[in-house]
Design goal:
Elements lengths: L3 H19 L3 H15 L4 H35 L2 H10 L5 H12 L6 H13 L5 H20 L6 H8 L5 H23 L25 H19 L4 H19 L2 H34 L2 H10 L7 H13 L2 H12 L3 H5 L2 H12 L8 H10 L3 H30 L1
């Protein structure tokens, strides 16, 4: 039997090596990692399988409807060319390509419940807003914008497990009042840094966008799923739904609206492609749930916090734990799921204000996004940038955002203590 901390470190190394070397599905590496960790820590085989199954089921129940609904909305919009309509409407108010790219990524990542999906949908549109080097910067801004909202704002697959485990007694509005403000400040800062590289206005017809229209002539059909999500919130509150149930209902409402308004051909294709895309994401996240459950079963939480406390203050534990997990395996959602399960009910969770705690974990998911991060390779392929350019334009800006989020969490902790 190996102690939890060295077993965890060895498991992360194995997961990272297999995932990076063989490029197989994260679901298999994470479930395999759960089995490997369980054997190392001498969890009885029958108990190990039961814990893995329970972890899979818990995460599936939490995310299945949310992610499937977001994927269906995204594919319905893509099938009908309505993403270009949405960007064209935003363009009626924003003419600077850098701001347009960043805000488009920021806004689209929320209803589709996936930053990578938002980026892939936006890529052909954003690419044609600039030329050569400027288009690379615009694509990077769209990616960073999608990550800022996806990582900070509730509800997304990153913040939902954190809210369920660490913020169950807090109002979502109280958290989002902080998170939305902070995310907009970060986005503004990133845009200010990058804007000089792409300062020219968007040319008419760029990116195959429809001509910019006044607000009254906006493409209402394209915005309808998002409007349905917003309108479902007060209805769900009036019905007395809990926060967890409300999230399921509003996302399902958005998906139903997108499906109802789609043409028959777009409806069939969108549902098929959406279900396929969602299945890949959901199973990967379920793998994280399996690994998290096995880690908790071994008594890792106490050992991890004790190890971190030996060289850092206890209040830094959420950030450091999330940063280690993020650097090791790359997925922000996996990091959030595992970190939330580890921290729930610990002395660190009791010592730090819940909102500050969530922000510290979120900060860790921004550090350090490099070769283990799937999004890193997607952006690299889209932009054609080399590794040095990706580090300068993607890894370091995200790390800067993470450090600023951590600093904001510290300020909030001081004010709330």
């Amino acid at each position: 039997m190996i102690e939890p901390l060295p077993a965890f470190a060895l498991t992360l190394l194995v997961i990272s090596f297999i995932g990076f070397r063989f490029r197989i599905s994260p679901f298999f590496t994470l479930v395999g990692g759960a089995l490997f960790y369980g054997f190392l820590t001498a969890i009885p085989p029958d108990r190990l399988i039961a814990v893995i199954t329970a972890g899979l089921g818990k995460v599936f129940g939490l995310f299945a409807i949310v992610i499937l609904s977001g994927a269906v909305i995204a594919k319905m919009l893509e099938e009908q060319g309505q993403v270009a309509d949405i960007v064209a409407d935003i363009r009626g108010y924003i003419r600077t390509p850098a701001t347009l790219s960043g805000i488009s990524g920021y806004l689209l990542a929320l209803p589709v419940a996936c930053s990578i999906t938002a980026f892939i949908i936006l890529e052909p549109i954003v690419r044609n807003l600039g030329r050569d080097e400027s288009s690379r910067t615009l694509l990077t801004l769209a990616a960073i914008g999608s990550l800022i909202s996806f990582g900070l704002i509730y509800p997304t697959p990153v913040t939902i497990p954190l809210f369920e485990a660490l913020l169950s007694g807090e109002s979502p509005l109280a958290y989002d009042a902080v998170a939305v403000t902070l995310s907009l400040l970060l986005l503004a800062g990133v845009l200010a840094v990058f804007r000089r590289a792409v300062a020219c206005p968007v040319p008419e017809g760029a990116g195959n966008l429809p001509p910019a229209e006044p607000a009254p002539r906006a493409h209402l059909r394209a915005w309808a799923p998002f409007a349905a999500i917003l309108l479902a919130i007060p209805a769900g509150v009036a019905l007395g739904l809990s926060t967890g149930s409300l999230i399921q209902v509003i996302m399902l409402t958005g998906a139903i609206t997108a499906t109802a308004l789609a043409s028959p051909s777009a409806r069939m294709s969108g549902l098929h492609r959406g279900a396929k895309h969602a299945g890949l994401i959901i199973f990967d996240i379920c793998g994280a749930g399996a690994l998290a459950a096995v880690i908790l079963e071994s008594g890792f939480a106490g050992a991890a916090l004790g190890g971190i406390a030996a060289f850092a203050p206890l209040f830094a534990a959420p950030f450091l734990l999330a940063a280690i997990l993020q650097t090791a395996q790359g997925s922000r959602v996996v990091t959030a799921v595992i970190t939330a399960e580890i921290l729930a009910g610990t002395t660190a969770a009791a010592a730090v204000h819940p909102i500050a705690m969530v922000l510290m974990v979120v900060a860790g998911t921004f550090v350090f996004s490099y070769v283990t991060d799937p999004f890193f390779w997607i952006v690299k392929h889209a932009t054609g940038n080399g590794l040095p350019a990706m580090i300068r334009g993607y890894t370091l800006p995200l790390a800067g955002c993470g450090i600023l989020i951590f600093c904001a969490a510290l300020v909030l902790q001081i004010l709330m203590s």
